[in-house]
């Protein structure tokens, strides 16, 4: 009499057991088709180079192609919104820079939430900025001399940037904020035009990415004055940091990191994280990154989450204090 009930109970238990192992089975099967890695800026820059270098190595360990897709526009916001709205299955990820921490204060309102809409995967690398000036202009070429000259003649000296809110601009704002000097900010639509005018003598200084500045330093056209990071760059080991040169507390470390859509299964995030950290440890990858002035990091998802929170707080305060707005 009780046999049908027992059979029904057994069938139900079996179904529940099957459901219980589905997430694990999904993680075990991941990835089973190509992964899209969105770069929210044009091809050719440091961010694009980092994604392509790591993607190539990660595809070997993960057994699936990692396809880099450039989706530039609106300071990285177009690509970020695209990924935020993508399925949380581990098949779409994004590489971001400081803009992830800067844009909430810079734009006021975004179509995505940098914290709620994303799950952190790993910090990837730092690419220092370097304060440079044209050698031909014969301007003050040490930090103490520049500070003294700028204090003696406020607003005489100019510094170029790739646009309002970029790390190049924020580097200049942090410099003038900590030293109390007044210099004129000249924003451009990208670092290329800014560098052209710096080399041509139309502007005096620039806190440029080491990636694009190094060739001009090597050719003798630019004089490196100081790097923006807390420690010296291995690419320019003889150039002091701004803190070493007298600007106490100065630290701007342009970082790059990987995120996926929120609610991506933790096991999938862990798989991506392991592939990234392993790739960053490869000598061939480190050599290629060194070629663009990038210094590998690698982190846990938790460490990246804490880093994003600290950077959002730091740069949000500076942007509000200085009244900075997007172009």
Q: How is this structure best described in words?
A:
With 327 residues, this protein is α/β, with parallel strands linked by helices. It folds into 2 domains: 165 residues, Bordetella uptake gene, domain 1 (D-Maltodextrin-Binding Protein, domain 2); 99 residues, Periplasmic binding protein-like II (D-Maltodextrin-Binding Protein, domain 2, 3-Layer(aba) Sandwich), CATH 3.40.190.10. It is built from 11 helices and 11 strands. Strands 2-1-3-10-4-11 form a 6-stranded mixed β-sheet, sandwiched between helices. It has a 5-stranded mixed β-sheet with strand order 7-6-8-5-9. Strand 1, helix 2 and strand 2 form a beta-alpha-beta unit. Helix 2 crosses helix 9 and helix 4 runs parallel beside helix 11. The chain is globular.
Element pattern in H and E = HEHEHEHEEHEHEHEHEEHHEH
Low-confidence parts, pLDDT < 50 over ≥5 residues? 1-25
Rounded Rg: 23 Å
Please tell me the CATH architecture of the largest domain by its name: 3-Layer(aba) Sandwich
Helical amount among residues, as a percent range?
40-55%
CATH topology tier name of the largest domain? D-Maltodextrin-Binding Protein, domain 2
Total helix count? 11
Q: End-to-end span in angstroms? A: 78 Å
Report the major sheet: 6 strands, mixed
User: Shape, please?
Assistant: globular
CATH class of the largest domain: Alpha Beta
Spatial order of strands in the largest sheet: 2-1-3-10-4-11
């Amino acid at each position: 009499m009780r046999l049908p009930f027992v059979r029904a109970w057994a069938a139900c238990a079996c179904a529940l057991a099957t459901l219980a192992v589905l997430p694990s089975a999904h993680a075990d099967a991941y990835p089973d088709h190509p992964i899209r890695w969105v770069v929210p800026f044009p091809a050719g820059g440091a961010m694009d180079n980092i994604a392509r270098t790591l993607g190539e190595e990660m595809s070997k360990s993960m057994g699936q192609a990692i396809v880099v897709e450039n989706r530039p526009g609106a300071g990285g916001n177009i690509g970020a919104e695209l990924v935020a709205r993508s399925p949380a299955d581990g098949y779409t990820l994004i590489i971001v820079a400081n803009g992830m921490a800067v844009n909430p204060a810079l734009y006021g309102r975004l179509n995505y939430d940098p914290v709620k809409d994303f799950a952190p995967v790993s910090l990837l690398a730092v690419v220092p900025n370097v304060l440079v000036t044209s050698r031909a202009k014969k301007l003050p070429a040490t930090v103490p001399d520049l500070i003294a000259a700028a204090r003696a003649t406020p607003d005489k000296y100019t510094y170029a940037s790739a646009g309002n809110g970029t790390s190049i601009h924020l580097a200049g704002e942090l410099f003038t904020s900590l030293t109390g000097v007044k210099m004129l900010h000249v924003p451009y639509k990208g670092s290329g035009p800014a560098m052209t005018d710096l080399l041509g003598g139309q502007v005096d200084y620039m806190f440029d990415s080491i990636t694009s500045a190094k060739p001009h330093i090597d050719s003798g056209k630019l004089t490196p004055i100081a790097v923006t990071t807390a420690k010296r760059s291995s690419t320019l080991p003889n150039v002091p940091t701004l803190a070493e040169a007298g600007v106490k507390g100065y630290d701007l470390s342009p970082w790059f990191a990987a995120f996926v859509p929120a609610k991506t299964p933790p096991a999938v995030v862990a798989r991506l994280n392991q592939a990234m950290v392993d790739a960053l440890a490869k000598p061939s990858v480190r050599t290629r990154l060194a070629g663009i002035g990038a210094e590998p990091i690698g982190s846990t998802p938790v460490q990246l989450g804490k880093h994003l929170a600290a950077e959002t707080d730091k740069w949000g305060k500076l942007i509000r204090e200085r009244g900075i707005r997007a172009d």
